[in-house]
Request: fold
Amino acid sequence: MARILVVYHSQSGNTQRMAEAVAKGAAETERAVVELKRAAAVTADDLVNCHGLVICSPEYFGFMAGALKDLFDRTYEALKDHPRIQKKPFAIVISAGNDGQGALASIERIARGYRLKKVQHPIIAKGPVTPEVLTQCEELGRVMAEGCAAEVF
Ligand SMILES: Cc1cc2nc3c(=O)[nH]c(=O)nc-3n(C[C@H](O)[C@H](O)[C@H](O)COP(=O)(O)O)c2cc1C
Reply:
């Protein structure tokens, strides 16, 4: 079974709804198990043990949410050379008031440090989270789970 970890932070619920949609889509794949966790509760072991990772963040002050930065701060030293982190498939989901590019760039830069492997285009919701955005999130989750289960990434 492929383990998919969906990590998120959210204050007013927008990113949470997107993360839940990603998890819902991923859970449709019978060969995957999905864990949906707030960034503050995620450990280095969680990152090591998953086969695919979806990082969901709001844009705050032109950057990823502090709770996600905290996750990276807490785990980088232990994981930067870990063989089960390098090339781990990941994708990014962002909720922003404006264009989300600051949050995206900050996550991508740190992900390069972990040597994660980006396997899908990011989803960036600008403004309200629409049903169309949630459908895209479900699809991203489904593709992530199918791809990890089939080991195609
Ligand atoms: C403290 C704070 C800072 C924010 N900074 C930005 C920003 O720099 N750029 C932007 O596009 N939106 C910004 N926003 C808007 C949020 O990205 C947007 O409301 C998002 O949907 C919040 O997601 P959440 O409901 O998951 O917390 C900010 C919101 C807050 C609360």
Remarks:
- The mean pLDDT is 97.
- The domain at 2-149 is CATH 3.40.50.360 (Rossmann fold).
- The first strand starts at residue 2 and ends at 8.
- Residues 63 and 103 are 4 Å apart (CA to CA).
